[in-house]
Amino acid sequence: MQHNEGQERSSNNFNYGAYHSLEAIYHEMDNIAADFPDLARRVKIGHSFENRPMYVLKFSTGKGARRPAVWLNAGIHSREWISQATAIWTARKIVSDYQRDPAITSILEKMDIFLLPVANPDGYVYTQTQNRLWRKTRSRNPGSSCIGADPNRNWNASFAGKGASDNPCSEVYHGPHANSEVEVKSVVDFIQKHGNFKCFIDLHSYSQLLMYPYGYSVKKAPDAEELDKVARLAAKALASVSGTEYQVGPTCTTVYPASGSSIDWAYDNGIKFAFTFELRDTGTYGFLLPANQIIPTAEETWLGLKTIMEHVRDNFY
C-alpha cells in the first residue's frame, strides 16, 4: 500500500485529513498492524479512569523486548485534536516509509518506536460528545463536584510546584498525588518496566513551540545546549516544508512555568532527549484548527520528529 506525502486516505479508506472518534483511531491502529505485521503491533498498556483501553503502536524491526526506544505521546490534553490526528498520520507514515526513506529505515534498524496517539481517552471522547474544549481527565475528585485532573501536571517531577493548582476546579489541577491519574500511571509503569527509552516526545497544541526541560524551574537542564541545538535543527527542518516558524527553548521561559509535566519526568528519569511540540497554529483558530490543516501540520511535524530521532539514533548510549 502506497501512502505518499499528502495522500489523505489509507487502503481501508481512513481519511487522514479529518478528525476521528476514539474508536476510529483505534480501528486504524489495528489496520496498520494488520497491514504491516512484521513492523507494527498494537499493545494495550492500561486503561483510562472510565475503563477505556489505552493502546500504543510498537514499531520494531528487531528481536528482544528492551531495544533502545523512542516514546511518542499525543492527546494528553484532550481538546488538542491536532495532536491525536498528527499522531495517527505519523503511525501510517512510519510503516509506509520504512525501507523507502533511508532515515526512518536506519532509525528503526537501531531503535523501536512506541506511539500513543490518545493519551487521555476519556477526555477525548468527552470533547467529541459534550465539551469540545475539555482539557483534563474525567476522574472523580472526592469532596468536589469538579471532574478530572490535568494529566500534564500529574507526573512526579516537582509535583504540585509552579504552574499547577490544588483546586480540583482548575484547568491545571495537579491531582491528589503524583501518578494519581491512571492514564499517566499506565505510561510511567510501562516506560519504567521497559527501562531502555532514550527519547520522549509529547505532542500538544497550540502555539508553534518546540521545548525541552525544564518546565518546573528556570534552572538549566544539564544537557540544555545539546537539546537546544537538536530542537533548532528540528524546527528548521519543520519550517522547510511550508515556512511554519517555531520558537525554541526551555518550557519554563518559552511558555510558562509548569510542574509535573511529562517531559520533565522523562528527563529526570534518565530519558535525555525529552521534547514538547506545541503544534499549529498561533491562535487564529487555536484548539479548533480546521481539518484542512491536519495533513500540512503532520507533514511538517514529521520532519521535525525525524530530525530528533536521527540525532537520538546517533547519540544514545
Automatic annotation (TrEMBL):
Keyword presence, Chloroplast: no
InterPro entries from the UniProt entry: CARBOXYPEPT_ZN_1 (IPR057246), CARBOXYPEPT_ZN_2 (IPR057247), CPA_M14_CPD (IPR034248), Peptidase_M14 (IPR000834)
Cofactor(s) it depends on: Zn(2+)
Residue ranges constituting the Peptidase M14 domain according to the UniProt record: 18-312
Active site per UniProt: 278 (proton donor/acceptor)
GO molecular function ontology, one term from the record: metallocarboxypeptidase activity
Keyword Hydrolase appears in the UniProt entry: yes
Gene3D superfamilies, per the entry: Zn peptidases
PANTHER family: CARBOXYPEPTIDASE A4, PROTEASE FAMILY M14 CARBOXYPEPTIDASE A,B
Family: Belongs to the peptidase M14 family.
Protein name per its UniProtKB record: CPA4 isoform 9
Organism: Pan troglodytes
